[in-house]
């Protein structure tokens, strides 16, 4: 799935008349913005900080000092504020639906909220699956069980999903990627940093705890063997930097290729159990990892393989069992890995369960109540305006050849924006939900979704499908669909407020829109043509000049050190950093176009350009727990919030807006500022 999430060729650049009437706060309107007098919370600023030294601190310093992270959160910021609102609204819907049996979302939610029933059941609901694992007698049977577990969404060494073929985007194809680790990344198994070693020791203890809770003996010894197996997987895994390269990860294998390239694993049995027998071609993301993992599996004692499947199955379903399992799951996966002190209230977890597994059923009710048609219309206008601005930026590029520009404009013109919610809702009518069977509901919902995806094979591409629910505070770009997608819940203050000053809206949601648009032209998205096909459509000189610019952004972010001894991985985060830079650049262009040559008013002593950049900084307000920030630096393709806000140091108008001068910490000489789009 080619999507890039936010943690956020129009051949003509003429704007429709409607776009010139962007929402604005004015004397003619009695409605006030949600934040401050013009859409920005000035009380959250720290004006003792010089903007040219630390723009994030200047815009957000008082907010950061005075905003504690809630006990049930690993981080807290503007995304979280909106997520809390979305969760609260969804809660109200589910509570109402659950009052009487008969609705899928109400019954599913009610089954989770019956904590007493889960505590009485203990591990019994999972016992049939665990017994099948315990009865496995050979490696062929183990491969078959791994295929069965794929249907339940359980972690196994190989991830499978169904998506478009990157080089033939009019057809679906099974895609496989490396998987199999109980911790977030190979670095947690291989690095020797003190905190990583502590996490590894805690993981071994957690595995032993799960075995003990399941009634198993010799838990410590068996947990150590499982960790050794996963460490062997980690050693052959590709890095996240290599794994994000869409060229390297496009490898089409036949059934014979699996037997030849990754011997030692019963692939035929595995694919049959997963429902993929008979598929002639499968895309493999990391070939050498598949070779290595198959070898590891062939050399690992059967008892250890069974224990591995046992603990992964318990771990993936612990949240739906009795309290000892819930507490163990939270203690490691949220406590150790993210530093979160307290588990969320059960109703919040219930809302998230329904949203994650049958989210469009909930989303249909959500948008009826909380997404107004006028909000969608205003967002549609903003998207068109930012797309037009991107077209203008492309036309003005000096480093791109004219022929490539024409293709880039054609790609931009072919964009399919999706705003708010799907035009066609997912049909869950064949999914059985039982108010008295929580774990069964979870397993059936996962199985339903797996079968829904299998059913895509051989059928036309569904271009109405969404990969997010309307309740999510996020957005994404899908390269093969040539689309940008903005769920309803992100189209709210501080990202978008119809009563706010346009400068703040363009710096907020406008830059987020620009971010997603520009993903289609980042270091990976630029490899896809106007049809969503992975193809070479740039000249070699274009590629060389583009790479020289992206290398500069990699080096710039490599230098940032958010935690002592831990730098941002510029190569891992470059796609998001490019999109932040381009998104803000394009949004500024769109803002200037919207003024139609008029000078922006001064509001509260701030110019339009100053308010624009404050709008950008405000959406990235976020405080992190140290463990969460550490995990993000190891695994997240997005840079931390302070550095995302700090991308402004590459934009010339920022310097004139805030009088940034040589000698200030954020200052970059004109030759050192990265300008791409």
Explain this structure.
By secondary structure, this protein is an alpha/beta fold. It has two domains: 17-82 and 372-418 and 466-672, 3-Layer(aba) Sandwich (Collagenase (Catalytic Domain)); 141-343, Neutral endopeptidase , domain2 (Neutral endopeptidase, domain 2, Orthogonal Bundle), CATH 1.10.1380.10. It has 26 helices and nine strands. A four-stranded mixed beta sheet has the order 2-3-5-4. The protein has a three-stranded mixed beta sheet with strand order 6-8-7, covered by helices on one side. A two-stranded antiparallel sheet has the order 1-9. Strand 2 and strand 3 (168-178) form a beta hairpin. The longest helix has 25 residues, at 346-370. The model is unreliable at 1-7 and 9-29 (pLDDT under 50).
User: C-alpha Rg, in Å?
Assistant: 25 Å
Number of domains: 2
Question: With helices defined by DSSP (H or I, 4 residues minimum), what is the helix count?
Answer: 26
Contiguous low-pLDDT stretches (5 residues minimum) are 1-7, 9-29
Helix residue percentage: 40-55%
The CATH class of the largest domain is Alpha Beta
What gap, in angstroms, lies between the N and C termini?
25 Å
Q: Strand share of the residues?
A: 5-15%
CATH topology of the largest domain: Collagenase (Catalytic Domain)
User: What order do the strands of the largest sheet run in, or round the barrel if closed?
Assistant: 2-3-5-4
Which term fits the overall shape?
A: globular
The largest β sheet comes out as:
4 strands, mixed
By oligomeric state, this entry counts as: single chain
Mean of residue pLDDT values: 94
- By CATH, the superfamily of the largest domain comes out as Collagenase (Catalytic Domain)
Which structural class do you get from the secondary structure elements? alpha/beta
């Amino acid at each position: 799935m080619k999507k890039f999430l936010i943690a956020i060729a129009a051949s003509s650049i003429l704007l429709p008349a409607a776009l010139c009437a962007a929402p604005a706060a004015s004397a003619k309107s009695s409605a006030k913005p949600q934040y401050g007098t013009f859409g920005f919370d000035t009380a959250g600023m720290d004006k003792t900080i010089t903007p040219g030294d630390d723009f994030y601190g200047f815009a957000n310093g008082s907010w950061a000092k005075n905003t504690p992270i809630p006990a049930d959160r690993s981080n807290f910021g503007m995304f979280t504020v909106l997520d809390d609102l979305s969760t609260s609204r969804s809660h109200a819907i589910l509570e109402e639906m659950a009052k009487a049996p008969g609705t899928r979302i109400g019954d599913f939610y009610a089954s989770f909220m019956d904590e007493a029933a889960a505590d009485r059941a203990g591990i019994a609901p999972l016992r049939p699956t665990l017994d099948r694992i315990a009865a496995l007698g050979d490696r062929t049977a183990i491969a078959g069980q791994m295929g069965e577990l794929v249907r339940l969404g359980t972690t196994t060494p190989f991830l499978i999903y169904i998506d478009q073929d990157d080089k033939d985007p009019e057809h679906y194809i099974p895609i496989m990627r490396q998987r199999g680790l109980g911790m977030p990344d190979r670095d947690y198994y291989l690095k020797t940093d003190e905190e990583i070693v502590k996490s590894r020791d805690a993981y071994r203890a957690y595995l032993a705890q799960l075995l003990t809770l399941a009634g198993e003996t010799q838990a410590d010894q068996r947990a150590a063997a499982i960790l050794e197996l996963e460490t062997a997987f980690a050693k052959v895994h590709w890095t996240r930097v290599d794994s994000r390269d869409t060229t390297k990860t496009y490898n089409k294998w036949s059934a014979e290729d699996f037997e030849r390239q990754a011997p030692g694993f019963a692939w035929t049995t595995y694919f049959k159990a997963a429902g993929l027998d008979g598929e002639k071609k499968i895309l493999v993301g990391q070939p050498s990892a598949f070779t290595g993992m198959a070898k590891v599996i062939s050399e690992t004692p059967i008892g250890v393989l069974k224990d591995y499947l046992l603990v992964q199955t318990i771990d993936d379903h612990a949240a739906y069992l009795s309290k000892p399992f819930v507490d163990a799951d939270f203690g490691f996966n949220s406590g150790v890995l993210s530093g979160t002190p307290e588990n969320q209230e059960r109703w919040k977890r219930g809302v998230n369960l329904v949203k994650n597994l049958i989210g469009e059923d909930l989303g249909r009710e959500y948008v009826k109540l909380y997404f107004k048609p006028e909000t969608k219309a205003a967002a549609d206008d903003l998207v068109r305006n930012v797309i037009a601005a991107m077209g203008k930026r492309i036309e003005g590029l000096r480093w791109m050849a004219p022929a490539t520009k024409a293709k880039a404009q054609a790609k931009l013109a072919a964009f399919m924006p999706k705003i708010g919610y799907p035009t066609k809702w997912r049909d869950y009518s064949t999914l059985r939900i039982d108010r008295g069977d929580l774990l069964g509901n979870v397993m059936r919902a996962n199985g339903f979704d797996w079968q829904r995806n299998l059913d895509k094979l051989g059928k036309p591409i569904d271009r109405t499908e969404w990969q997010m629910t309307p309740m999510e505070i996020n957005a994404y770009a899908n390269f093969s669909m040539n689309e940008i997608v903005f769920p309803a819940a992100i189209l709210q203050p501080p990202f978008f407020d119809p009563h706010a000053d346009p400068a703040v809206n363009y710096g907020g949601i406008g830059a987020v829109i620009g971010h997603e648009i520009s993903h289609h032209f980042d270091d990976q998205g630029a490899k896809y043509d106007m049809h969503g096909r992975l193809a070479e459509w740039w000249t070699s000189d274009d590629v060389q000049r583009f790479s020289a610019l992206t290398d500069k952004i990699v080096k710039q972010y490599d230098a940032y050190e958010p935690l002592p001894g831990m730098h941002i991985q510029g190569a891992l985060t470059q796609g998001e950093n490019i999109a932040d830079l381009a998104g803000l650049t394009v949004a500024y262009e769109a803002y200037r176009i919207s003024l139609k040559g008029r000078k922006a008013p001064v509001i509260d002593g701030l110019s339009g350009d100053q308010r624009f950049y404050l709008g950008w900084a405000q959406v990235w307000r976020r405080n992190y727990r140290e463990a969460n920030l550490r995990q993000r630096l190891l695994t997240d393709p997005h840079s931390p919030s302070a550095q995302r806000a700090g991308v402004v140091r590459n934009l010339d108008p920022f310097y004139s807006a805030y009088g940034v001068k040589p000698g200030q910490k954020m200052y970059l000489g004109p030759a050192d500022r990265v300008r791409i789009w």
